[in-house]
Structures are given as structure tokens and as C-alpha cells.
Amino acid sequence: MLYDCTMQFRKIIKFGNNSFVISLPKSWIEQNKLKKGDTVQLDETGDDLHVLTKRPLTEEATEIIIDIANKDPDCIKREVTAAYINGHATITLLGKRSAENEYALKKNLHSMIALEILEQTETKMVARCFLNMKEISIENSIRRMDNIIRSMFADTKKTMDEDNHQLIYIRDEDVNRLNFLSFRTIKFLLDNPNYAKSINISPQYALNMWQIVTNLESVADQIKRIARDIHKSKMSSGQKKDFLEIFKRIDKHYTETMTCFYKKNQQTGLVLANKKKGLVEGADGFFKKYLRTAYLPSVSDKLKTLILDIHKITRVVYGGAG
């Protein structure tokens, strides 16, 4: 919806002994489908007074129908993911599916929390989301993502001696599921500003949480890729020692950053931001030392990306996450 951003002025009219009134623009009344006798809400924020329509809570949108005939599996995956994030309760897929599409489609649907397949024929598949969005906490979802990522850090330290990189892949998929849920939750809060305000979540806070979630998902991706390269590299004891030295520093930096985020400590966030340069230099040193060793230059590049993703979380903290 497009809004007319032209500033309008209204004169204040005295009404009785205790009230004053102003007229509301006809265009705004029509745009919000209001009529005489309807109730609006007044929101006082500092010196400002906002007039809000008393809209009912927007639960999940109605059914969305996606034509999947002759479409690439990746294209179908993007459309289904977008439908889930945008709050649709029912996702109906129409079109004949190849065996390849069948497997990819079911895997994608199962990657969405509380999305269940209810009906399936040769040319139709219906999935429904059973979430109650008022019961979902964005803060809890972030903590769950954080806990999984901490276990991914711990598992990666072991992957040089234990064949556990597949476990790290599974943990990354869990982070992805929470990532989609978090995006759906934030979208719901932005679509329902009155409800968000009632639980003390401002639009700025919701957008900050969007950035945090995005960066957490990227952190998990980088750890997964680092573990994969380490598994392939078959590092010597000296190479393992050098890797662990920089990786443990990054792990500690991540933990300190998330602790700072939960405490909303801007000053500590600024201190942590200053550590980025030293961590990047450590990753560069690893790169130069093992430039001609298979997979290790790639590991170094992913370490630097991991450091930058953590730094982006720090930036949200010292910029005022709350």
C-alpha cells in the first residue's frame, strides 16, 4: 500500500469543558475503511500523538496457491519459503511432480516448523501451518539458535579427530528451521504494530532482531563449511594446533558478543568491536602460513567471513539493539 506523505495541518477545536477535537482527513478514513461510530486508538509517544485504527489481529493469511508445473526445484523452494515467511496458513502446490521434485519439495516443507502435509495426490499437495503466532517469542528463537551454534563451535573443534561433520550439518539445518520461524515471527509483528506494541516490541527492535537472526544463520553456515573443509584436509598436528588457536579465539568472541547482546550493553559492544582487526589478522596469518596446503586457504577465508558475521551482531548491539 502506498501512503500520501504530504504533511497536513488541522486546527484544534475546543469541545466541552475537558476535551479538544481535530478533524481526520477523509482520504485516511476511506483508506482504512472507517465510518462514523468506529473506534480508533490514541498512542502518546513523547510529544507525539498517533491515531491508530483498531485493527483486528492479523493472523495467518489465507491459502496461497503455487503452480509448480515445469519449475526448477530451487525456484519452487524459494516460493514455498517466501509463502511460509509471509504468514500463509495453507500452502497448496499444483502441478505434476517429478521424482526429483517430490523429494526436494517434501524436504523443503519439513524444514519449516509446524508445517505439515495434509493432502497429497499426483497433481496436488497441501501443507498447513499450525503455529499460533502469539505463542512464539522471537527472543526464545534467537536463544535456541545461539545454543545450537555454540554446540557447532564445540563439535568443530572435535571434527579433526572425530568423524562428526555430518552432525554439524544436522545442527545447521536446525538453525535454518529457526531462521525461517524467526522471519515469520518478525513479519507477523511488523504486520501487527498494535499487538507488537502491547508486548513492548517496537518496529526498530523487530528490524534489529531481523539483522541478528540473519547473521546467526550466516555464522552457522560458515561453521558448517569450515567443518567440511577440515574433514577433507586431513591436517597435521601442527596445522591442527594453529587452526584451534584462532578458532578458539573466534569461539570466545562469539560467546562474549551474544552475552553482550542479551545484556544490551552498548559500551561492551564497542569494546568487542575493536577485537575484529586482531581476529582477522589471525585468520590472515593462518592463510599465509598454509597458502599451498589443500583446503586450508579456503578455511582461512571462511574464518574471516565468520569473524565479520559476528562483528555485524556486535554492530547491532553497540548501535542499540533494544
Could you explain how this protein is built, in words?
This protein has a four-stranded mixed β-sheet, covered by helices on one side. Helix content is 58%, strand content 12%. The relative contact order is 0.08. It has three domains: 13-53, Pemi-like Protein 1, Chain: D (Ribbon), CATH 2.10.260; 64-129, 2-Layer Sandwich (Ribosomal Protein S8, Chain: A, domain 1), CATH 3.30.1370; 136-318, Methane Monooxygenase Hydroxylase, Chain G, domain 1, CATH 1.20.58. The protein has helices at 26-31, 73-85, 99-110, 138-158, 165-191, 193-198, 203-233, 237-263, 266-273, 276-289, 296-318, and strands at 13-15, 19-21, 40-45, 48-53, 64-67, 90-94, 115-120, 124-129. Strand 7 (115-120) and strand 8 form a beta hairpin. It has 322 residues and is an alpha+beta fold. Helix 8 runs antiparallel to helix 9 and helix 8 (237-263) packs antiparallel against helix 10.
